[in-house]
## 1
Amino acid sequence: MNVRLRLAGRRHLFEAKADWRSGTMTLEGRTAPIDEWEWEAPDVGALYGVALNDRWEWEGMAEAMTAPPYEQPPKGPVLYMKPANTINAHRRPVVLPPGVQRLRAAPAIGLVIGRTAARVRREQALDFVFGYTIINDLSIPHEQRYRPAIKEQARDGFTPVGPWIVPKEETVPLSSLMARVYVNGQLVQCADLRRFRHPPEQWLAEVTEFMTLYPGDVLFFSWPADAPLVAAGDVVRIEMDGIGVLENRIIAEEGGGGA
Amino acid sequence: MKRARVAWNGTVTDAVPLDDGRLLLPDGTVAAESDVIWLPPVEPRTIVALGLNYADHAGELSFAAPKEPLLFFKGKNTLIGHRGRTVRPDGVNVMHYECELAVVVGRPARRVKAERAYDYICGYTIANDYAVRDYLENYYRPNFRVKNRDRTTPLGPWIVSHEEVGDPMALRLRTYVNGTVVQEGDTGDMIFSIPHLLEYITEFMTLAPGDLILTGTPKGAVNVQPGDEVVTEIERIGRLVNYIE
């Protein structure tokens, strides 16, 4: 399959032939395992997450949803943003904030917008999607959903993206994608799109009803309910058949105690 | 110094507003205001907004003043320039303006101490951070359907440099609807001051040049209707005009 990518130290975008099964890539006439290149996050704009789309997560919270402070289940989409400072690349370290021992590493499928999407209809939603990428939606574990979880979600480097963007025509249908998460080589989570309360196409329609998504923007969908907690030294690897592999090591901040 | 961004003669350019209302373009051309379309004066990648940062506004919404800044993010889809039009969705009951001092970050800012905060700020502009309260839900509140709608955050008309503004913590804010004053406040009444906010935010995330902090709004939220002219004004910065449709 042909994928779009960026490499560390190179200013331009690349298109390369990749084989997610063998983990190899052919670029500038050379075929090699993808880890022989140094990666930069693909070219993405704003990153919007759709929360509470994981049915398991929803069920776990169902009782709380009818009590204060929530009072009732959400009617509209519950969205959050991972800002530009959070973007991280394949095989780049994720730094634990001072005083934090564990992060939740939720695998997510990212839909990369191909053309400006405003008020799209569900049936045509995928026409506005260029392709897919893998996202590791890291956060400091938190239960409260009443206020935006900015301090828990928006830390530098908390959103590894990549390793590349796969054009949707180059791979399997969206509905058949699934994620496997390994921590230090051990399989800890398996999830597929059947666990989503609503398919991405429906969210694209609901979200673009009031906010425009631009080319490069990413709407992503995670499976947080059984996502692993990870600590310094752990290597998190998210595999999605038909897309590829996104791997990052969690490290403690140098100096340990922060500024 | 003031700096605007405008569409003029088929291109987008920086412009310096002159005292007579005309605009000086970088190549020396002087353009009439009628020949330009005002754009948001900056293109941020990250917009951090504050909820409930004035005690009187928190009281008006029946909230206790927060102990920590209440932050949320906004997308660039929300921004619109001076004299733009903002849609009031059909069938809603309450949509209100929020006049806010917008801080423009000037340097990469990470773990900035409050004492040094102004070294990292290049200037200020005005934001009118509309909210459609009908859509409020108690999940990641204020949720995106309230605060992240297309073209609901007029920004401008220009950026005024920190040097020209002087102390940003002593500026009068006013909002006029159809010429009548409906909101008045003073940036000195912020619960969390600008230096404190920059320290708080950059303690956990890095801001980039051009990023924005919208610092919250004082008391005086009033419903607006299609056809209204809404002017948000901040002393030493200017007047930002928006029309509701």
Note: Chain B has a mean pLDDT of 95.
## 2
Amino acid sequence: MYSPELIAILILLLVPVCAAILLAVCKPDIIRNILVGISSVIIIGTSLFLAWNAWLAPISVTIENAEWISTLLFIVELAISLVILGLSLKYRKVLPMILASVQLVLLIILEVYSAGRTHVSQTFVVNDLSLVMILIIGIIGTLICVYALGYMKDYHDHQTGVPNRKRYFFALMFLFLSAMFGIVLSNSLMWILCAWEITTLCSFLLIGYSKTPEAVTNSFRAVWMNIIGGIAFTLALIYLLYIPSPVNLLSVTGMLSYPGSPAGLTIPLALIALAGLTKAAQMPFSTWLTGAMVAPTPVSALLHSSTMVKAGVYILVLFAPLFAHTWVGVVLALIGAFTFLATSALAISQSNAKKVLAYSTIANLGLITACAGIGTPEAVTAAILLIIFHAVAKALLFLCVGAVEHKIGSKDIEDMDGLLVRLPLLATMMVIGICGMYLAPFGMLISKWAALEAFLTAPLGVVFVSILAFGSAFTIFFWTKWLGKLFMRMNKPPAEKVTLHFSEKLPVVVLGVLVIACCIGFPAIVSGVINPYLDTHYPFFIPGGMELFSFDNVAMIGLMGFIIVLLVLGALFGSKAGKTLPPYLSGCAVDREGRFLGSLGVYKEAKTSNYYLEEYCGEAKLLKPSWVISIILIIIMLGIGILGVMI
Amino acid sequence: MNVLLSIIVAIAFVLIAPLLGGLFMGCDRVLTARMQSRVGPPILQPFYDVAKLWHKEKAFNNPVETIFTTAYLVLMVLSGVMFTTGGNILLMVFALALAHTFLILAAYAANAPFSHIGAERELISVMITEPVLILIAAGFYMVSGSFQVIDLFIVDGSGIILLPGIFVALCFVILLRLRKSPYDISTSEHAHQELVKGVTTSFSGRNLAKVEIAHWFELVILVSLAILFFTHLLVFSAIMIIVCFTLLLIIDNVFPRVTWKMTMKSIWLITLFLGVLNLVLLGIFGVLL
């Protein structure tokens, strides 16, 4: 009979698919709400159960009939390629068409050559890394779907020109979750490839949801960039078939336990790295993620925080032990670090909140890529911490921006002044999210510290440290100026009474609490989840080797957190005695709201806006040079892969 | 360091640092005045200023200013305490950045043009400082194998010999954090400034006093960071600090019209060419030492 773990795994893979089918069929809003609610509860419960069991002991299960599942998945892959081909034909897009055909041919070659081979002995493996991913997808992913219920109602009220295709929308969202579970649960690389292709297709369709010309262009850009990754992945698998090995290299566990020197694996590693780079939207592939902002906000949140891009870095972190001793890994890390630097600078020049979040996402993924490429235990610790903290805080920020956009009618940061007065709940959550992204003692900063410590011992360490130092300076700049806007005294009248849908309020608050919980619980995450994972993959790993996690430092971080709590309490309950005066405006006529009285008796508002440093950080200035540099680095990486250079 | 000693050192720091910082500011004002052929205020003027500010009426543009300026002061003190008790230098850098964030938020909260531009420019100066401070921490780590300040004292040889480039970068950061140059950045009780009162425009009374005191603490922290480069040559370090201080004042008075763009470019170029190169060389030849 099936073990409870296997049943849990099957629930995670199949419940979202069933929910997707039902959602595609049922039209009334009320049934959709109930369906989404029930399946979310099932998915969250099951992921908690599975994560708990995997935490007690890593799970690896085998199922029978793996052959016909593989065949089924192959048919799915072919269908995906054909759908993309068909849509490219319909919209007359040449590049996606060519790439999709190449992908189709490669898939058939792969299937033909792998036909007679023995199949993977373990079908599903859940270790501590996949446990983290399961929790991220299971909890954050479903919360985003719940949020979408309320959001899509407002979306169609605001965007009257967009045809209402909510059934299609929700079906794709859940299909997406299922594909993500497929990537993190499967052990077979063939199955991972199939799930990989499903995420490509879902993101493609979701980005093009509104069918406006801009959305169509951006969705095709996303699809051709991701197909490049798919092609690289397929090529890697085909190449792996030709490497003689006592273990089955077409599985994750097989790759990681390859008995020969990793020098023999550099070509597939470089190809998989390329696949990871496309999915994680690293330079030069970053434009698909910034273009994906045309989609409704829940899609952006899903793509950015818990799925899609995380699939890219998950694959890279998974193979980090193999990257550790190769120059492929070092160059991969360079691409990531460079992306971090360039996109952090680009984020300074953006005033569209979603665009800022997009660039910051790419930057953080760059940092994770850098850590994965370096691949030492310290670096992997930093990478996993970054994955967790980034997922929670970024999902929160996207959901806040989406809700704020519907309430104040703008997603421009310049329009968010005094938000703390106008929309207290959403703004408070936004403050928590922003602090979580860059301020001490919150999570991302802890991870950056871990990354710094890891870089110092890596090859070319000084280069990485310098990039991190300057990149962090940029992040401080763009986050602080956003944060400042929220705290501004209000010159405008407060927004009229606005109510937030319950389905929006719940995920936002839960995520806000999660950000804080992750910050408080980070020592537990490190010792309970990350150290056991490293223990199994690095034979010489000594837990507690990192200075960051020494008792003194954790205590100091705790003290800092305690001071922040006291200050927040002081702000809430402290004495506000004193006189509120109009601001200083150089002695010009001014009333209490901070306005000038003009010479003709008209009140004029004195208005300033944030710095965007366009002349240094503008897209026009930075994008093209960054593409050139990153393409050169990718070519170097592939070249080193072919040469098989070791450190 | 044991707990009791740490507590004593921390208390001593909290008591002595503002005195030193205030005197430092006083000397600065007198010296600058002399260089500009003025008499200048008495050397204790900063203390008189703060004492007077403390008893002023409570007034603000936005009530949150009170809590934000308190946060600025408290975190600045915390950062100094971490440093003087031999704690972690990275954590200290992060606490400094957090303190400045609160100052900037306080200026933002007024939602007034002068204070907003002041806040933005203060933010730029924080952005300029951050990489240098992180590289200093990285340099110390490469020398001593640890981010703990206390471990630096155990290492043979002084930081200045191994990290001269980083030290130069730090000197320029101190120049920037004195808030005198560039003329279009930050605050301006000093000469040659463009913005009325920069980041402090909207503060008055006790809030402004807190910002001043925090500024004294910051100066002491940065100067003691410079002293760290001379752990085995304490007398020499005292002389060096005085020399550097005078040199910085001269530089400041010779270039009264440096803009923030020039500052950003020059400090970052210095950091890249001297600081990073220093670390690269240390990485290559460090094995030999």
Note: The beta strands of chain A are 59-61, 124-126, 579-580, 595-597, 603-605.
